[in-house]
């Protein structure tokens, strides 16, 4: 599991550790890791030209000490000081001692134009609000340079705790972060400014429960359901799909397509698109009546393409089994009923649906995804999966939010959300908790999207068809 902690948590851990270490030792650990990462990226340090963007705090200090280490190995280093009178003293002395030069933002153009590598030490976890004008101009100037840009701790201008980007920010090719990931490094829009992120251990003792986490291959492999010798289709879990309408039969087909690949023992379909579902997937158990009359089901998916059929949504929500509500179902569900359910409920809105549920503009959800998903989970006492460029999953009980690391913008294709709802619903039926079903579903869905697309457009059906391959990959099994 990759874990991320807030700036406040990091500061508390730093204080505790600094009390036990000699003055400056922690910063030296950070600078050593940073310099090593830069050396890797440069390939050859001797003779390379590096520019350090140095703000007024310790983030600038890290850049200066790392620059001094690289200068001692033969790099030409120039520090651009944003606040010459408030620059980290020790760091500046070290850089000068190693033969580094100093300049001002106004005169930085020629050095930036020649640079092989730019180290962004404008601001780290001490940043507040958008970059101030001079820093913002420097961030914009870096974009014009051909140099490799390495952010110190995080790209200056992103909000460490939320992933918001308030105005101009440094666009990095790589970020070297200290002690732990910061939530903003895992959440869009900020994540897309960070490039490849490398974590440098500086010995912090961090709380076991992080603010944010991201599943990795091994975590997902451990959670995937696997039939045992005594399994039958009911023990593996039966997932019910209440989706589709005369107008949108395809949503039913796609949700069933996702569900059939999700590890449940059987898929029941309830709704008016039974013929279309059977034509494509004869293994589906199709029922014409209301969902509650469809027979035994361990979890329901309700909503994709259901049109205005509020009665079908209410019928599903009244059942005392886990329910995943998506698409039209989110609009038709009675909020009071959602809140009062005792079996697990999973809501899977995209930003527009989330905005409608919260009664705020869509842009507000998109710019503050972490706060929005937490608020939804609290307001509806449900696990909430917020779709988008970084899919986030918030548990109903306020625990750590999960950020999905596998997304791809190729998934932004009609019907791919229906596949996700079926897949996650099947995982719910197989016995995973709401948070695990939603986050494992998003993980596999993202990988399947990448696999199906491989650089060219893929349809939602292709995404569903790629799920078995990525399932095998995650479990480390070679294809038969
Ligand atoms: N505290 C520690 O022990 C360690 C800290 N480390 C580094 O120290 C950083 C935190 O240092 P600081 O607490 O000094 O804070 P920062 O250096 O992140 O930022 C604070 C400084 O930036 C300026 N600033 C704040 N918001 C700004 C904005 N919007 N635009 C322009 N300037 C802005 C402030 O005036 C202040 O001087 C970490 O991100 C990390 O890089 C590492 O060296 C590891 C050890
Ligand atoms: N820019 C993006 N980057 C990565 N994934 C995205 C992006 N935009 C959408 N997605 C994903 O694509 C899927 C689309 O789902 P949804 O919005 O419900 O569409 P539909 O209703 O057409 O199926 C979701 O899994 C979502 O997370
Ligand atoms: K920075």
Automatic annotation (TrEMBL):
Query: Does the keyword Nucleotide-binding feature in the UniProt annotation?
Result: yes
What EC designation does it have?
4.2.1.136, 5.1.99.6
**Which residues does the annotation say bind (6S)-NADPHX?**
58-62, 124-130, 153, 251, 305, 350, 418
The record's annotation in PROSITE patterns points to: YJEF_C_3, YJEF_N
Any idea which positions bind AMP? 387-391, 417
Annotated GO MF terms:
ADP-dependent NAD(P)H-hydrate dehydratase activity; ATP binding; kinase activity; metal ion binding; NAD(P)HX epimerase activity
Domain YjeF C-terminal, chain residue ranges per copy: 216-474
What cofactor does this chain's UniProt record say it requires? K(+); Mg(2+)
**Residues given in the record as K(+) binding sites:** 59, 120, 156
Alphabetized Gene3D superfamilies for the sequence? 3.40.1190.20, YjeF N-terminal domain
Question: Where, by residue number, does the polypeptide cross the bilayer?
Answer: none
Question: Which SUPFAM superfamilies does the record cross-reference, listed alphabetically?
Answer: Ribokinase-like (SSF53613), YjeF N-terminal domain-like (SSF64153)
Which CDD domains does this chain map to?
YXKO-related
Keyword vocabulary terms for this entry: ATP-binding, Isomerase, Kinase, Lyase, Metal-binding, Multifunctional enzyme, NAD, NADP, Nucleotide-binding, Potassium, Transferase
Any one of the GO BP annotations: nicotinamide nucleotide metabolic process
Kindly state which reaction or reactions the protein catalyses.
(6R)-NADPHX = (6S)-NADPHX; (6R)-NADHX = (6S)-NADHX; (6S)-NADPHX + ADP = AMP + phosphate + NADPH + H(+); (6S)-NADHX + ADP = AMP + phosphate + NADH + H(+)
One Pfam family for this entry, by name? YjeF_N
| Sequence ranges assigned to domain YjeF N-terminal in this UniProt record | 10-210
Q: Which family does it belong to?
A: Belongs to the NnrE/AIBP family. Belongs to the NnrD/CARKD family.
According to its UniProt entry, the function of this protein is described as: Bifunctional enzyme that catalyzes the epimerization of the S- and R-forms of NAD(P)HX and the dehydration of the S-form of NAD(P)HX at the expense of ADP, which is converted to AMP. This allows the repair of both epimers of NAD(P)HX, a damaged form of NAD(P)H that is a result of enzymatic or heat-dependent hydration.
- PANTHER family per UniProt: ATP-DEPENDENT (S)-NAD(P)H-HYDRATE DEHYDRATASE, ATP-DEPENDENT (S)-NAD(P)H-HYDRATE DEHYDRATASE FAMILY MEMBER
Q: How does it assemble?
A: Homotetramer.
Protein name, as recorded? Bifunctional NAD(P)H-hydrate repair enzyme
- Per the UniProt record, the source organism is Streptomyces indicus
Provide the organism lineage as a comma list. Bacteria, Bacillati, Actinomycetota, Actinomycetes, Kitasatosporales
Gene this protein is translated from: nnrE
